[in-house]
Amino acid sequence: MGSKWSKDDALIWLSGGTLVLGFLMVAGLILVIVVHGLGMFWPQELTRYELRDGRIVLGHETSRVSVRTTGSAGERSVTYRLGIRTGDRERYPDEYTWLEEGRVAGRDTPREAVVVERVRGGDLFGFLESFVDDGTVVARGFEAVRAHYREQAPELERLRRQRALSIVLSSEDGRQHSVSLSNVQRIYAPNEMTTWAKVRHYMGGAWAYLWSPPRDENRLGGVYPAIFGTAAMVILMSVVVMPFGVLAAFYLREYGKPGPFLNVVRVAVNSLAGVPSIVFGVFGLGFFVYFLGGTLDSVFFPADLPEPTFGRGGILWCALTLALLTLPVVIVAVEEGLAGVPPVLREASHALGATRFETLWRVVVPVVLPSILTGLILSVARAAGTVAPLMITGVVAFSAELPVDGAWPFVHLEREFMHLGFHIFDTGFRPDGGEASLPMAYTSTLLLLAIVVALNAAAIGLRSRLRRRYSLAVA
Amino acid sequence: MTDRPQGRRLDRRRLLDLLVGRLAALGGVVLILTILSVFAVILWVIFPLFSSPAEYRWGISGPEGIDAGYGILPLISGTLKGAVYTLLFAVPVSVLAALYASQFLPRVLMERLKPLVEIMAAVPSVVLGFIGGVWLAPFLASHVFALFLAPVFISGAVVAAFLTRHHAPVRFRSFNLPGREIWLLLVAVLAGGWLALECGALLEAAWLRAGYETWFAESLGLTFTQRNAIVVGMVMGLAVTPVIFTLSEEALSAVPRSFLEGSMSLGATRWQTAVHIVLPAAGSGILAAVLLGFSRAIGETMIVLFVSGNVPVLDWSAFTGFRALSASVALDLPNAAPDDTLYRVLFFAAFLLLVSTFAINTVAELVRRRLRRRYA
């Protein structure tokens, strides 16, 4: 290596640095999502903080923030504040509290501290006192109560109905809570769990997250209705968008005669692709919900008016709105596939006397089928990640009903529904700064990201395989 | 079989062919009708606004009967503010990166990067917005000095990495294989970022009397909010970077090789060729890319919703938030009764978004076409 180097080479490196920087920033943000999102189900050990003033707080640390202060004499000091998740919403609004680290006199992790997950009202942290059966105490102390609870657990459903079972829990400051067993989701003692037990707890938590409905204003529980709603809406949208997208692509590449009309169609596709998603939502509200929905109501459901049936946001209108949004995606993907079909194939088919449609159906379509699939996957990925237009055309933060269920007519197109992306918005953007729902938001974000990335990776893989096949065929 | 009339069979085949052809044309017609009806429906709703006083459309504080602060003007200013800060971050990063990728990165590596860029482009904006608002904004708000140091330190670390490799002993020659520098760059950028964080903490210890908010107010006389234009610029910048990068890279790669060869044979260095020959030649393509990024930033909703703070203000400070047209529509339209003035004003906001993005995209498309024709 010569030691002569020019400024120019350093500048090349700097431009390379920007490329790396861009990737690193996205990778960093994704890493944050992955770490936070995966951490949600891991049982956190409970710490008992004893403060100098005698107060005792039980919880787990979630953050440590430095606070700068300047005294009257100008002396500077840095103190640290600990963000502690404490559970028990009655005592700590938002289930969090801040502790000055300097005022913590001691901390320990008592083996017997338990987490009681309640169906309603959030988590409680504390110590098991007694097990009460119809007013009589049948067990006392951590081991006995737990043994009793475990013994009864298999029959809990039956017992709950027959007798008023409850568990008495004392919080760290000695206060007693009586929790009815019908309100208990799960009890566990994180401080005495082995790693294996924690892994099992984690798996159970992840499973429950995917397959159970939300509890407690989306702060706890699962996202099953949101996953279901997203899937139902996306399927509905695909049914609408695929035929139109494929037909339009056929027109652009196969049937359309070059001329002003074809150009206008092309301009229309380009313009449609450039319309911001929120504008589609506004259009969906004005046209689908109020105009189409209102008309449907006055024709088919006049008895229910003024209570709207279709004349308000619903899954059908969301699906149609997103169909418009993803139409260009399908068209572009199918067009690319059509452009890649070697002309030899078409020419051979025409030479054998086939009409354009026969050529299309028997020769071209089988070849571009993977491209159509690519278009479908890409449009589904796009639709699953788009939230803004749905916010005004029928998505809700919580819905007790699924858009498809056992009640006649089984598919309820007019219903409002839950959506995974909107679930992120709802749990991650609470005006009161609701820290308590953030773990849930991180996990949903991770889930949505994983779905969208997986779909896109599948589409990219499919397309590159396709390209390789053509390049071989042409060569 | 043979006695079946040949003519009828042919007719049926032709009929089917004709029918499908018409159907496909119908698909095209539906497309045109769709884009027209988007314009028509929105215009239909906002039409009554035009017969009402102009303040209803443009007012700063909003007409009576509408929530105060419902002037469109602060929202327009907010949307533009967000888009401008986005471009301030995204254009240097993506154009320089595209220049590097098209001129100095081995083709093989570029082919491997492409799917990554595509996946970056597909990350839903609600994901970026969430992580930007909930994690990045608080993080940056407590590391402001580090944020300002980062560009300097990262550049320094990259140059240091370059010098290290340049002066490395011969036995580390495998480092010099083309493309290998990417790994060294990775380490350098990370190290630069880490150094910036550490030095930022030192500066904080030396200068900061209380939090950053007080420091900004006392030392600079500025308001500082956690959700501010810088964070929006970074997060939305990351969202539009793949768009600008991909299109710029396309334009830069389309510059004929003869340009490069001519320049190099006259003694220009690779960097001089890239900056003075390739960049201007691809200029209109890059302009189109930037315009498309701009229109993306204008219409983006979820990111501004999470990160901008949604407070309507009329200033352009980097350290305050804003409220954008798109965010207002998403937040307030669900609560607006149809045929209400608020409803129409929000449709007017959407109309502004539609018309501006339509105009920008059209200009970008025309610029791109001209470029393609030139080098075709």
Q: Summary?
A:
By secondary structure, chain A is α+β, with helices and mostly antiparallel strands. In chain A, about 55% of the residues lie in helices and about 15% in strands.
Give an account of the 3D structure.
The complex is a heterodimer of chains A (475) and B (376). Chain A is α+β, with helices and mostly antiparallel strands and 475 residues long. Chain A has a domain of 251 residues: MetI-like (MetI-like fold). Chain A is built from 13 helices and 13 strands. In chain A, the strands form 3 sheets. In chain A, strands 6, 7, 8, 9, 10 and 11 form a 6-stranded antiparallel sheet that branches. In chain A, a hairpin with a 4-residue loop joins strand 1 and strand 2. The longest helix of chain A is centred in the C-terminal third of the chain and has 37 residues. The radius of gyration of chain A is 30 Å and the shape is globular. Chain B has 376 residues and is an all-alpha fold. In chain B, 75% of the residues lie in helices and 0% in strands. In chain B, helix 3 packs across helix 9 and helix 6 packs antiparallel against helix 7. The longest helix of chain B has 41 residues. Chain B starts with 5 loop residues before the first helix and ends with a helix. About 2% of the residues of chain B have low confidence. Chains A and B meet through helix 1, strand 2, helix 5, helix 6 and helix 7 of A and helix 1, helix 3, helix 4, helix 5 and helix 6 of B.
